[in-house]
Amino acid sequence: MAYRRTPAVQARLDAQAGSIVRAAMTVLSRDGFAGLSMAAVAAEAGVATGTVYKNFSGKAELVTAVFREVVTREVDAVAEAGAAGQGRSAPDRVTAAVETFAGRALKNPKLAYVLLAEPVDAAVDAERLRFRRAFAETYVAAIADGIADGQLPPQDPRTSATALVGAIGEVLVGPLSEQLQSESVLPELVAFALRALGVPHE
């Protein structure tokens, strides 16, 4: 008969894996992808290196798990910022989404650089592509609504959203890689996003 884990055992294993993912997030935020090792994560989590390997086959699988956790949280924050409601205009929604995305990235530059641009394994890079698509989706509805009510000129919402995510990520790479805090980055990104979508200049 195959062994079945009891709920209590499974809960303990899930908690252990979660602790390791959080430790990896801390190491990535401090040392980047290049500085992350299974031993460093084990030390941060306060467990043996073998325990890390019990939960994750290697660095790529562990970092992929970190990507999924962080990206889910960040996408939710950006989606909430750009959500419809209370008569918010499309430009206001896009502005809020851009400010949230870029502002949160600049608060944790090392981790954001890993998510956006640092050279990583192919498996992690595939997760990065899903990450960019998920962020693009957060802009699609606002752009489509703006076109429908005449606030934005006709355009393909998905193409525009994807282009915005790519451009914003590219602009952020410099400040994130050098860990620079420039007060002009956020307003310039918002101004660019609105110009790119065809919002009339006031």
From TrEMBL:
Residues 37-56 bind DNA. It holds the Pfam family TetR_N. InterPro entries: Homeodomain-like_sf (IPR009057), HTH-type_TetR-like_transc_reg (IPR050109), HTH_TetR (IPR001647), Tet_transcr_reg_TetR-rel_C_sf (IPR036271). One of its GO terms (molecular function) is transcription cis-regulatory region binding. The keyword DNA-binding applies. Keywords: DNA-binding. Residues 14-74 form the HTH tetR-type domain. Signal peptide: none annotated. The keyword Cytoplasm does not apply. This is TetR family transcriptional regulator. It comes from Nocardia aurantiaca. The lineage of its organism: Bacteria, Bacillati, Actinomycetota, Actinomycetes, Mycobacteriales.
